[in-house]
Each structure stands twice: as structure tokens, then as C-alpha cells.
């Protein structure tokens, strides 16, 4: 299934690139436009005498352009795909020129090299994964002990702060927004960035909604549980230790995951994705579901300054690839080992009803209560307007509140025609942020921005 113009524009690094690309969707600006089963390519006349060479590997899609832009994809790559979607008759089937075939061949060789490397690093069955010992084990142990001491001191300060909040009550919090950021900064200094993130998140709930106090109190209670768990760190199982460290902000490095993480080869369906920006740091969450394994996976990417990510993902496509999972009691986050090749675009098969989806969610949270948000996929969801807000209702009158803009809610309702949908989104413990919805085909996607 070809990409729609709306889906193509969602690959843009920013609004300015999308706007500029729309201005180039004119066949007269392109002296050459060609395609075959692998790629789309063309030449776009710029301000210079020599036109830019623009090409797209359709399997990604992955872009390349000879223009000097540092944005990825650039406006020319986006415009080329928009032209293909809106003016297909302007393209002719042709043999790939050297500048296209050489690029595709270099990508193929790189994929083969990565696959060979991944195979070489995979331990044989029954064999422990090889890990490179630190250059100086004693120095590494001293660094670890020093960090744990800083974390212990920071958590002791946090516990005192929590006690003060409970003694003083929550009624004063709406007038003290600076409390959260001040403590979050100190937690970062104490090597606890995960705690800082949670504090800012809880602070954002203050005075929002009718039941904000109970929500804030629950969040503060989770912080106390984290403190108690840290004090028992050495007595916890290795997977639970990994979850706790991750919640505190101590993540396993990428190389360790690639060498020793659990690997699953599958056809992974892209269920949805969410892109957020805070202080010029872009974060993208891509949610996947394995056809054969039934596993959920989260691919987490970051970009500084400009929203530029190496791999493009299109919701509802199936990707044949191997994922390496981070350690944990209920592993979710993963790293793609080999670059994926897109297959057909289809809706998710066998999406469970809400009852079973919530049972699975409860079991996952029992194994790892620190992972937020959680993925939620279920069928039989009917969108409706609930006062000033939006919600999803099942035939048996079960209701999930939504975090969605008014425009998105109306579009979702219109596309559903009042009938049931299969919906995927991010559950934060209170509301569902919908990212995609299907009937027989993909009908709606939402690239969610910060609420």
C-alpha cells in the first residue's frame, strides 16, 4: 500500500520542511522523474545550474539528496514522495542510473555487514554471552560504588522531602510550582535522572482535573516504593534490579544490549509512534508487535536540536528484522539489530477485546510497575464525545477516557462512522493517548505531541 500525502508529511523533520516540500510538488520543477520496484528518483532544479539528485529507497522509506541541507529527510526527498503519491503519471519506469544503483548497493552491503556482525556476536545455544571485561575492574567498581553512594544520598533527601509534603498536606502545592523543578535539579545532580523525570511528571498533574490530589498522592507513593526498593537492591532478582535501575535513570549501554540482550527475529507490525520535544531534545517512541511471538516492543530514539532520526517508520507496515531487548522482568524496550525491510501494510491481526487487553496490561505492570507509558491495543472501541472530552466505549459500556485534541476526536469519530474500531495508544494509568486506529485498513494515525 503506497504512502498517503499525510503519512509522507509526518516523516518531515519540522513544519518548515513540510511547507517547503509542498511548494516543490510541481512536475515542472523536476526535469526527470523515474521509479522501479526498489526506488523512486528524480532531479529537482534548484538555484544552481546543476539539479539536485534525489532518491528514496522505498523499503524504508530512506532518503538521499545531493543538496547541502542538514535536515533529514530534506524538502526535496519529501517532495519527491509527495509527487509520487499525487502525480504518479509523471513518473516513468526506468533503469536505475549509477548514482541510484550505487547508493542502493552500498546500503545492501552495509545491511549484510551488520547482519554478519550480529550473527557473529550471537552466543551459541547454551553458551553464555561474551562480555568484554572492563579495562580496570577495580576502577569500574570504585565508580559504581561512588555513584551508588550519590544515589543513596539523593534518595535520602527525596524521602525527607516526601515526609514534609505529607505533613504539610497537598493543598499548598498549586501555589508552589517551583518545588518540583528545584528538587528535580538536585536529583539530576545525585545521578537520578529517572527520579527527576517522575517529579516533573507528578508536578504537571497538580491542579489539573477534579481528582488531581489523589493522582499526585499515588505518584508520591510510587517514589517511596522506589526508595524502599533501592535499599533492597542487592536482594532483588537480576531482572528486577534492571527494571529498578532503569526507573532511577541508570540505563544499560547500547553495546551490552546488542551483545547479550534477548534476540527475537519476527515480522514486526508498527502499531504507532509518538514524537515529543522538550528543551530541544526530541524523543520518539515507536511501538511494535511481533506477528509470531506476539511480543510488544518499544524502540526509543533521541535527537538533539533537529527532529532527525536515522530510521523512518510508517504505521501499519510490517518489518522483518531482529530486535535485541534490554534486560528486565517484562522486557519491552529494544534495539533493531539489522535495518528492516518493509512488507505489506495491514491492520493488526487478533487484537483482543478490552477485558483481555487490560488483563495483559495488569500482568505486565505486576512484573514491572515502573514502565510508563504502557502500550494498549484492543478491538471494539467506539469513539464518542464525553462532555468537553473524548472517550472510547465498548458494546458492553466499558469506557476509557482519551487524551486527544478536539480536532483529533472529531476526525476519529467521523472515520469510524460510529462503528467499532481497533485502537492502539499509550496508557498512562489514567487516560489513553490514541496513536492509530483501524477498521479493515489503517484509517487514522496521530503523531502525538506533548499535551
Could you walk me through the main structural features you see in this protein, from its secondary elements to its overall organization?
- It is a single chain.
- The protein is α+β, with helices and mostly antiparallel strands and 451 residues long.
- It has 4 domains: 5-103, no CATH class; 141-248; 260-345, OB fold (Dihydrolipoamide Acetyltransferase, E2P) (Beta Barrel); 354-445, OB fold (Dihydrolipoamide Acetyltransferase, E2P) (Beta Barrel), CATH 2.40.50.
- It is 37% helix and 25% strand.
- The chain has helices at 5-9, 15-22, 75-86, 98-121, 137-168, 178-189, 193-203, 212-231, 238-248, 254-260, 354-367, 406-416, and strands at 32-35, 39-44, 52-57, 62-65, 92-93, 262-278, 281-290, 296-304, 317-325, 334-336, 341-345, 374-386, 389-393, 399-401, 421-427, 432-438, 442-445.
- The strands form 3 sheets. Strands 6, 7, 8, 9, 10 and 11 form a 6-stranded antiparallel β-sheet that branches.
- A hairpin with a 2-residue loop joins β12 and β13.
- α5 (137-168) packs antiparallel against α8 and α6 (178-189) packs antiparallel against α7.
- The chain is globular.
- The relative contact order is 0.08.
CA gyration radius, whole angstroms: 24 Å
SS-derived structural category: alpha+beta
Query: Stretches where pLDDT falls below 50 for ≥5 residues?
Result: 123-132
The amount of beta strand, in percent, is 25-35%
Give a quick account of the main beta sheet: strands, pairing sense, barrel closure. 6 strands, antiparallel
Could you say how many structural domains there are in total? 4
Shape: globular
Q: What is the tally of helical segments?
A: 12
Helix content: 25-40%
Query: How much is the average pLDDT?
Result: 88
Distance between the termini: 31 Å
Q: Using DSSP, what is the number of strands?
A: 17
Amino acid at each position: 500500500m503506497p504512502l498517503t500525502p499525510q503519512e509522507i508529511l509526518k516523516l518531515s523533520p519540522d513544519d518548515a520542511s513540510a511547507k517547503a516540500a509542498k511548494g516543490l510538488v510541481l512536475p515542472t520543477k523536476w526535469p526527470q522523474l523515474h521509479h522501479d520496484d526498489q526506488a523512486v528518483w528524480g532531479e529537482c532544479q534548484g538555484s544552481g545550474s546543476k539539479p539536485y539528485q534525489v532518491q528514496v529507497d522505498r523499503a524504508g522509506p530512506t532518503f538521499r539528496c545531493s543538496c547541502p541541507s542538514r535536515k533529514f529527510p530534506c524538502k526535496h526527498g519529501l517532495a519527491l514522495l509527495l509527487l509520487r503519491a499525487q502525480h504518479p503519471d509523471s513518473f516513468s519506469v526506468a533503469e536505475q542510473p549509477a548514482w541510484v544503483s550505487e547508493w542502493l548497493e552500498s546500503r545492501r552491503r552495509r545491511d549484510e555487514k551488520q547482519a554478519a556482525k550480529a550473527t557473529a556476536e550471537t552466543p551459541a545455544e547454551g553458551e553464555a554471552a561474551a562480555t568484554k571485561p572492563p579495562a580496570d575492574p577495580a576502577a569500574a567498581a570504585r565508580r559504581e560504588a561512588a555513584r551508588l553512594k550519590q544515589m543513596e544520598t539523593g534518595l535520602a533527601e527525596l524521602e525527607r522531602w516526601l515526609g514534609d509534603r505529607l505533613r504539610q498536606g497537598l493543598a499548598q502545592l498549586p501555589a508552589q510550582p517551583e518545588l518540583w523543578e528545584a528538587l528535580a535539579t538536585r536529583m539530576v545532580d545525585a545521578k537520578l535522572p529517572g527520579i527527576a523525570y517522575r517529579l516533573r511528571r507528578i508536578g504537571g498533574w497538580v491542579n489539573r482535573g477534579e481528582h488531581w490530589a489523589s493522582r499526585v498522592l499515588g505518584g508520591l507513593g510510587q517514589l517511596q516504593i522506589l526508595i524502599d526498593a533501592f535499599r533492597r537492591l542487592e536482594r532483588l532478582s537480576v531482572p528486577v534490579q534492571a527494571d529498578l535501575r532503569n526507573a532511577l535513570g541508570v540505563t544499560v549501554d547500547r553495546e551490552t544490549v546488542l551483545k547479550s540482550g534477548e534476540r527475537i527475529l519476527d515480522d514486526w507490525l508498527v502499531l504507532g509512534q509518538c514524537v515529543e520535544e522538550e528543551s530541544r531534545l526530541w524523543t520518539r517512541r515507536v511501538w511494535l508487535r511481533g506477528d509470531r511471538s506476539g511480543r510488544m516492543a518499544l524502540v526509543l530514539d533521541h535527537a538533539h536540536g533537529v527532529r532527525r532520526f536515522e530510521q523512518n517508520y510508517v504505521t501499519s507496515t510490517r518489518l522483518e528484522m531482529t530486535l535485541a531487548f534490554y534486560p528486565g522482568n517484562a522486557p519491552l524496550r529494544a534495539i533493531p539489530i539489522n535495518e528492516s525491510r518493509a512488507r505489506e501494510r495491514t491492520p493488526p491481526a487478533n487484537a483482543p477485546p478490552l477485558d483481555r487487553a487490560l488483563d495483559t496490561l495488569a500482568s505486565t505492570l505486576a512484573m514491572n510497575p515502573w514502565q510508563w507509558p504502557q502500550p494498549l491495543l484492543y478491538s471494539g472501541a467506539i469513539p464518542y464525545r464525553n462532555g468537553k472530552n473524548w472517550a472510547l466505549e465498548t458494546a458492553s459500556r466499558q469506557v476509557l477516557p482519551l487524551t486527544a485534541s478536539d480536532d483529533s476526536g472529531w476526525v476519529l469519530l467521523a472515520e469510524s462512522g460510529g462503528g467499532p474500531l481497533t485502537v492502539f495508544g499509550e496508557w498512562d494509568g489514567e487516560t489513553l493517548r490514541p496513536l492509530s486506529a483501524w477498521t479493515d485498513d489503517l484509517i487514522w494515525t496521530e503523531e502525538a505531541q506533548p499535551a
